[in-house]
Write a structure and sequence with these properties.
This protein is mostly helical. The chain has 6 helices and 2 strands; from the N terminus they run H-E-E-H-H-H-H-H. Helix 1 runs antiparallel to helix 5. The longest helix is centred in the N-terminal third of the chain and has 33 residues.
Length: 155
């Protein structure tokens, strides 16, 4: 029980990082779907006159690319949500590592379009995965690697 209490602050930090990654991914996805990020100029010339009318056009990613664009935009959301499902601690930690790595791949592959917008989520997931991994590898207080305690090593 003492070990579980010692891990609790790290578990809270780890969970907060995963929630922050998910929040960022959802926010970016909603922003890209609903906020006009494309800008262009539309011109209309009437044949009866020589006048030309131009207007500025602002469109969302969803309007320009259609609903199929939601699939790649939801990949970071799913990857950041997976570790928040109720799994055993070891499985959750593996999911954090796998999700962080896949999210980094998504950021690099999509860097020329939307990938870099998800970089903060990838970094938060990576830090959460490293935090969880370091807690699994920690040495209990008073123990020296090799199985002996400090008291036994002095004798």
């Amino acid at each position: 029980r003492a070990r579980a209490r010692d891990d609790r602050p790290w578990l809270i930090i780890e969970r907060a990082l995963v929630v922050a990654a998910l929040t960022w991914a959802v926010g970016v996805t909603i922003y890209l779907a609903l906020v006009p990020t494309y800008e262009g100029v539309e011109s209309l010339q009437e044949f009866s006159t020589t006048a030309e009318r131009t207007t500025a056009a602002h469109r969302t990613l969803l309007e320009v690319n259609g609903p199929g664009v939601l699939v790649p935009m939801l990949i970071p959301v799913v990857l950041t949500a997976l570790p928040l499902l109720r799994f055993v601690s070891a499985t959750r930690r593996r999911l954090e590592v796998i999700s962080a790595m896949l999210l980094l791949v998504f950021v690099v592959v999509g860097a020329l379009s939307i990938g870099l917008l998800y970089a903060p989520s990838a970094m938060a997931m990576l830090i959460a995965a490293m935090t969880g991994h370091s807690m699994n590898c920690s040495i209990p207080p008073g123990k020296i690697p090799g199985g002996s305690t400090k008291a036994n090593s002095r004798a």
